[in-house]
Amino acid sequence: MRIDLVSLFPEFVAQLAGHGVVGRAQERALLALHGWNPRDHAEGNYRRVDDRPFGGGPGMVMLIDPLRAALQAARAADPAPARVIYLSPQGAPLTQAKARELAGLPRLILLCGRYEGVDERLLAAEVDEELSIGDYVLSGGELAAAVVVDAVARLLPGALNDAESAAQDSFEGEGGLLDCPHYTRPVEHPLGSVPPVLLSGNHAEIARWRRQQSLGRTWLRRPDLIDRDRLSKADRALLDAFLAERGGRGAPPEA
Ligand code: 9D3
Q: What is the pTM of this model?
């Protein structure tokens, strides 16, 4: 897969994506990242990439032409068709399902804004899709682009090692529940001891306990992810036992 970054700070995103799983995906040639700076496509001595907003107000707006030239250069660098994605607070929320969809495409072009944003005409003409990474304010699209690159790269076949891959499969198989707690040595520590079931060697019991912890934590921490009525009978029984143990009632906490 090829991902092009159109950004005033393309090396910032590349730096973020140079380590760990994403770095390894690049070393294995599963992923190629390329940066394009609109400033390199700006005209004049000042190489302007922004200007004041019509209608007034604070901040600056990114100019159409340097961005369009950078996008054009990115597109022309490879014949495969590219999905152009603008990272923006107005975008649809990034989800694991969206990451999976994007990981199936041959090319992405990620457009990062700075300042107050990008001239709307450039967006209307060149952008296929807008994505946000959540409801908080960032200073620009670069961190969001790095998040997209990370979430997508780890889904490319061969990016994960066998152990990482198995862990991911089991998570995706759980249908969006939170993870269970994890423990390692020592068994006894001043901060507490390891739940005995994990030391029992009874793999069916361990799987049951982990499933129960996942259900219980999801119920308590992310009630938006779980619908009791749509759980299997077995899961409902596990969840009810979890809640009974901590003296809980039937209804989830306030979202
Ligand atoms: C404080 C500025 N805001 C005025 C009402 C608007 C604004 C403009 C530009 C807010 C943030 C940004 C820069 N953010 C992004 O480019 C961005 C982003 C984000 O801020 N949050 C979550 N996802 C994303 S994706 C791109």
A: 0.94
